[in-house]
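[Structure tokenization] protein backbone as discrete codes

[Encoding] learned vocabulary of local backbone shapes

[Begin record] amino acids and matching fold tokens:

___
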Amino acid sequence: MREIINTAVKDAMRSKDKLRLSTLRLVNAAIKDKDIALRTEDRPDGVSSSEILQILGKMVKQRQESAKAYEEGGRLELAEQELSEIKIIEEFLPRQLSDDEVGKVIKDTIALVGASSIRDMGKVMGSLKEQYTGQLDFGKVGAMIKKILG
């Protein structure tokens, strides 16, 4: 995953695409910040590819919130920039599952882990995060699991 991002940085530099380059540099900075944090936890290898996907997902969510705030404040040019950055970051994320696919995945995972009550929600979420990081909005997924198990 790191190599893919670094290659994209080099391509952006060659094509002189300033927005793409600055966005990808922010991605690299976020990954390096997490690497540094993990060194204190005795993980010299740094972040894994699945953790990079989590970082990218978090960056998308932050930009969505910022874009919404800018739109509400009448700062449309800043909202547009945030939305442009989201498109660039999403290129490195797996395809988001549709609502129907999410419902099926949740039901399958509940059956797989043998969840029967709301107390088993942690098991279900853990299993989903292992398999579907970057493909699901876990804020929405949590509510759906509560509805099914509740």
